[in-house]
Amino acid sequence: MIKLGDSLPAVTLQEYSEVEGNGCSIGPNPVNVAQATAGKTIALFGLPGAFTPTCSAKHVPGFVAQAEEFKKAGVDEIWCVSVNDAFVMGAWARDQKAGGKVRMLADGSAEFAKATGLTLDLTAKGMGVRSTRYSMLVKNGKVAALNVEAPGKFEVSDAATLLAQAKS
Question: Annotated catalytic residue: which of 36, 42, 55, 88?
Answer without folding.
Answer: 55
